[in-house]
Amino acid sequence: MEAATLDRLLDYVAQHNLKDGDALPSERSLAEALGVSRRDLRGALASLEAAGRVWRGVGRGTYLGTRPLKFSASLSSLRAGSSPADIAEMRLVLEPAFVELATSKASPDDLAELEKCARRNAMAKDDDEWQQWDHRFHLLIAQATRNPAIIALMEVVNGMRMKPTAREKTADQDTRRHFAEQHQAVVKAMIKRDGATAAARMRDHLLNVQWRIPSHRG
């Protein structure tokens, strides 16, 4: 249902000629306009937020586009001048530790959502759809840590990855399939509450991502 809601939401944006920086209606109004439940709408908005296509601020509403730097000034320096290689290296250092922490803290609902996201990732038909579910997968892991600082950092990392100069391309189906299998291996280890294995599988995955960045190839 979430995928159908996401399609309706994207159609709504297109039909109303909304662009980056424009505000979306309130959650209640938007759910009524789309003919969907607020729960399904929240899931669709979370997917777009993880992909850097909308941002939400407490008391501010939901806006199209990436979060403006003025609303995340303490982390803005991370965005400035970071190359794809820099981002990949940072992720390799940090995310295995994040997933190990998340394995110990994740609720059954967190794990179910991660499993669902990994399945959606495996079904991606193109690079845009892959990126959407990939960003959501990594943000869900951060959210499962229950650590606001880690969650904020991953939101910024996802935003950095959306820049045209920093975005990893997964243009071929074989690459997407391979990465999806690696995501599923991470989730399987998390479900078994095996943090060390989950961290190792995440490290394997990020090494594969890093290898596909030109400056890291042998």
UniProtKB/TrEMBL annotation:
PROSITE patterns: HTH_GNTR (PS50949)
Key words, A-Z: DNA-binding, Transcription, Transcription regulation
Keyword tRNA processing: no
Pfam families: FCD, GntR
Gene Ontology molecular function: any one: DNA binding
Sequence ranges assigned to domain HTH gntR-type in this UniProt record: 1-67
Domain of life where this protein originates: Bacteria
SMART domains, A to Z: FCD, HTH_GNTR
InterPro entries attached to this UniProt entry: GntR_C, TF_FadR/GntR_C, Tscrpt_reg_HTH_GntR, WH-like_DNA-bd_sf, WH_DNA-bd_sf
PANTHER family, sorted: TRANSCRIPTIONAL REGULATOR, GNTR FAMILY, UXU OPERON TRANSCRIPTIONAL REGULATOR
Name of this protein: GntR family transcriptional regulator
Species this chain originates from: Caballeronia pedi
